[in-house]
Every structure is written in structure tokens, then in C-alpha cells.
């Protein structure tokens, strides 16, 4: 029995899922593609890049989406997806990143993938750079520390915008752009630990990405005025551990590490608190007047973000006991439970994050990643088929989506929700299959064994019903 209230999700709400090329496609060196920084993860993070990687290299084949995408898209369509967020591997289009002529086989692959989505009425959202650039750009140019990257990126985005201008409306310029602060190789193709890299060098790389993002927004709107171009940040809001004013300020400063990236994309300029931070830490950025004008004039159409957990902050060293988190560690919140990977589970934090962003920017928002990574067990059901009884995932997603509804009641304008990831994929940073997010189980394991067969988890039909009811099934009363 469903509660008799008006619909909680708008009629045109974009339900779906999100993938990343380096984590699902495989075919690492097929059809002209060359190595990427995503292929080198985690081997390139803290030292010399290891290429070719070890034999037991999961991303080389990944889940073989490159060859199996038609079957996988059919499963997404069966769930009723309105949108699939995908990324384009830059190295499929320009294998080294600095060529003039694109690789036609790479462009043709994404043509075919996009056409397959459109066949089922699934709107594609494309992330232009999702934690991978051609490895050549990292080893030969220093990644995003080099201003030449702006020109290489411009050529890449012009090429794909022009190719897919009549097929794609929604674009994201960089995935989780703020992650570069804690994972420079992952986010920027910059080798070394974040704490060992000169802050001026790191923020200069970030500035090059800001300029590139503004340029991509400008070019996109010129090629097709109907394009909707957004930024994407990893959003984990901070709570003060106590009401101590020092903890309040510490949480504010920690939040600003994320808000800074959205501020520049949405407001077109560096905020005052960052100018103070630069001055106090002797951080110097080379920034032209043209850069400033470009960022000011070409702000994003919407803001998208990932949300997996909230963080806590304290100024008290005695209480600053760190727990595992997404990319970085956090102070343990005594009121929250954690996932198998120690990520604190906080559905209400998603409502808080949505309100925080909408109050600040008054721009449409999009949740493009949210999900639960867990150790799933494939079991035989009553009919002799295989499945995963992932009630824990259903509970995680249900409670988070209920809070999404609350945020929209608060007045937040939300365009859609794409869960991470609708099918099991290789994890990005540590390159393993053990941590699974999908509604679809893939028979592939950390030692590279497995048949690559796909099996529907219990959550598959649950999410199918959520989409079919436009979210109303989330509020069905317990019987």
C-alpha cells in the first residue's frame, strides 16, 4: 500500500547508473588505444609507473564491456534506465593525447555504444575525463602541471563534441575534479604523494583544469547551444565532531576543500577564502587575464556530484582518530555504521549535501554516483539460477533515495540519479573486483579468474520497480 501523497520525484526524473571506461571496458590496447593513467592505477601512484602492468592485471580485460556492451545495455534497459553515465577514454580517440588526427576506431566504438543506448531510449551522459588521461601525457608532459594540457584537452573535446553533437545532450568536464588534492596521479596524472608535491605545482595543475573546464563549456555551447554541461565533484560533507567553535571552524575549512571546486565552476572566480589560503601558504599561481575572463563567462549549467559518505572534523588532536574513507580518511562518527570498507553510511548526509549545494548555488543538481561497495556472495536460488541476496545494498539505496525525496521537498532542483555502478566493475584506485556495487554480478575475481557471465542480483528487480514507479515503491508500507 502506497502512501497517498503527491509524487515525490518529477515526471522527467533521470533514473539510471554510472560507469567509467577504465573500470569496465577492458580492451586496454585494442583498436589503436594505448595505455592510460587509469590503466596504471594503482601502480603509478606512489612511484614509477609500471607499464606493462603485472600479468594479473584486472583492468586489461576488466568486465569486457568493450565487447559485451550490447548485452549489458539490454540489461540496463530491462531495469528501465532513463540515463547511463559513461566516460570516453581519451586514449581511444588520441592514443598518445597529443596527436592531431583522431583514431577512427575509437570514435566508432562510442558511436555504436551511444546508438545502442538511444535504441532503448536511454539518454547518455558523457564524462570527458574520468580519472584517466593518455599515459604519454603524464610521463612526457607531467600531466596537468603542464599548461600544454589545455590545448590537448581542447582538441579532444572539440573532436568528441563535434562527433556526437546530435546524439548527446549531457556532458561532464572532469570526474570528481577535487580528488586531485589527495590523489594527484589519479586526478591529474601527477606522480608522487600529495603531501610531497609543492602546493604551487598542485594548484597550478588544478587551475589548468579549471581553465580547460570553462573552455569545454564555451566550446560545447558554441557547437550545440542545447548542450547541458556540468562539473562533477566528490561530495562528502563535514560535520563538526562537537559544538566546540574550533570544531565548527575546522568543519567549515574542510568543507571548503570541496566547495572551492564548485565555487569556481558555478561562480566563475576564485573565492576569497582561497586567496587567503594561497597568501598564507605562499602558493603562487600563474593566471592570465584571459583565464579569468574565460572562467567568469563560461560557468556550468548544472552541478553534479558523487556521494558515498559524510565526514567528521575536529580541531582536538586527542580526538582526531582517523577511520577509512573515500580517497582520504576521516574522524569516526559515533552515530554511524560503516560498510565493509569502513565508509560511514549516512543517508541523511545526502539530504544535507543536496541542500548545502542548492542553497549555495541555486543551480540544478545531479547525483551521478551513489552506491554501496560490498563483498557479494553468488548463491543458487530456488529455481537453480544464480543470484546475490543483497538486501544490504537495497537498504542502503532505499534509505538514501528516501532522503533525496526529502531534499526535493526542501526545494532542491534535482535532475536525476545515476547509481554507481549498475554492474560490477574493477575498482579504480586499488584495482580489485572484491568490492562490488552492481545490480548485476559479474563472474570475475581479483586473481583474474572467472567466466565474465552476468547474473541479476536481488537489487536488480528492486531498482527496476523503483524506476517503474518513479520512486513511489521506496515508500511502500511494510506489510
From TrEMBL:
Keywords for this protein: Glycosidase, Hydrolase
Family annotation (InterPro entries): GH, Glyco_hydro_1, Glyco_hydro_1_AS
Residues forming the catalytic site: 369 (nucleophile)
Lineage: superkingdom: Bacteria
Matching SUPFAM superfamilies: (Trans)glycosidases
Cross-referenced Pfam families: Glyco_hydro_1
Similarity comment: family membership: Belongs to the glycosyl hydrolase 1 family.
Full protein name: Beta-glucosidase
Classification of source organism: Bacteria, Bacillati, Bacillota, Bacilli, Bacillales
Amino acid at each position: 500500500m502506497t502512501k497517498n501523497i503527491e509524487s515525490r520525484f518529477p515526471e522527467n526524473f533521470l533514473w539510471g547508473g554510472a560507469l567509467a571506461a577504465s573500470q569496465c571496458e577492458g580492451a586496454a590496447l585494442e583498436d589503436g588505444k594505448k595505455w592510460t593513467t587509469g590503466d596504471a592505477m594503482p601502480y603509478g601512484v606512489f612511484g614509477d609507473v609500471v607499464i606493462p602492468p603485472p600479468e594479473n592485471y584486472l583492468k586489461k580485460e576488466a568486465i569486457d564491456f568493450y565487447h559485451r556492451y550490447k548485452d549489458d545495455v539490454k540489461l540496463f534497459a530491462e531495469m528501465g534506465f532513463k540515463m547511463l553515465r559513461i566516460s570516453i577514454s581519451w586514449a581511444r580517440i588520441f592514443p598518445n593525447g597529443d596527436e592531431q588526427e583522431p583514431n577512427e576506431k575509437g570514435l566508432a566504438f562510442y558511436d555504436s555504444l551511444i546508438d545502442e543506448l538511444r535504441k532503448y531510449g536511454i539518454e547518455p551522459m558523457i564524462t570527458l575525463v574520468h580519472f584517466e588521461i593518455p599515459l604519454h601525457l603524464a610521463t612526457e608532459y607531467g600531466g596537468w602541471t603542464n599548461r600544454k594540457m589545455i590545448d590537448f584537452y581542447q582538441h579532444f573535446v572539440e573532436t568528441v563534441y563535434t562527433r556526437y553533437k546530435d546524439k548527446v545532450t549531457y556532458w561532464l568536464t572532469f570526474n570528481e575534479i577535487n580528488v586531485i588534492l589527495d590523489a594527484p596521479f589519479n586526478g591529474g596524472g601527477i606522480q608522487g604523494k600529495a603531501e610531497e608535491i609543492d602546493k604551487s605545482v598542485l594548484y597550478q595543475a588544478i587551475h589548468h583544469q579549471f581553465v580547460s573546464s570553462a573552455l569545454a563549456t564555451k566550446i560545447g555551447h558554441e557547437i550545440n547551444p542545447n548542450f547541458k554541461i556540468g562539473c562533477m565533484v566528490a561530495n562528502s560533507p563535514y560535520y563538526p565532531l562537537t559544538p566546540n567553535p574550533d570544531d565548527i571552524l575546522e568543519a567549515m575549512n574542510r568543507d571548503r576543500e570541496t566547495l572551492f571546486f564548485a565555487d569556481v565552476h558555478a561562480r566563475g572566480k576564485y573565492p576569497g577564502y582561497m586567496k587567503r589560503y594561497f597568501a598564507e601558504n605562499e602558493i603562487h599561481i600563474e593566471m592570465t587575464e584571459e583565464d579569468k575572463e574565460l572562467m567568469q563567462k563560461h560557468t556550468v549549467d548544472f552541478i553534479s556530484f558523487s556521494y558515498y559518505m559524510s565526514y567528521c572534523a575536529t580541531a582536538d588532536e586527542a580526538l582526531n582518530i582517523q577511520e577509512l574513507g573515500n580517497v582520504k580518511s576521516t574522524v569516526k562518527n559515533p552515530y554511524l555504521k560503516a560498510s565493509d570498507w569502513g565508509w560511514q553510511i549516512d543517508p541523511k548526509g545526502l539530504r544535507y549535501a543536496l541542500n548545502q549545494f542548492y542553497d549555495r548555488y541555486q543551480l540544478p543538481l545531479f547525483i551521478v554516483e551513489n552506491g554501496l561497495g560490498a563483498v557479494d556472495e553468488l548463491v543458487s536460488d530456488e529455481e537453480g539460477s544464480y543470484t546475490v541476496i543483497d538486501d544490504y545494498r537495497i537498504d542502503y539505496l532505499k534509505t538514501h533515495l528516501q532522503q533525496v525525496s526529502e531534499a526535493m521537498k526542501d526545494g532542491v532542483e534535482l535532475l536525476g540519479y545515476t547509481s554507481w555502478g549498475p554492474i560490477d566493475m574493477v575498482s579504480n584506485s586499488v584495482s580489485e573486483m572484491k568490492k562490488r556495487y552492481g545490480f548485476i554480478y559479474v563472474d570475475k575475481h581479483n586473481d583474474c579468474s572467472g567466466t565474465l557471465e552476468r547474473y541479476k542480483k536481488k537489487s536488480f528487480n528492486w531498482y527496476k520497480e523503483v524506476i517503474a514507479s518513479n520512486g513511489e515503491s521506496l515508500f511502500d508500507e511494510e506489510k
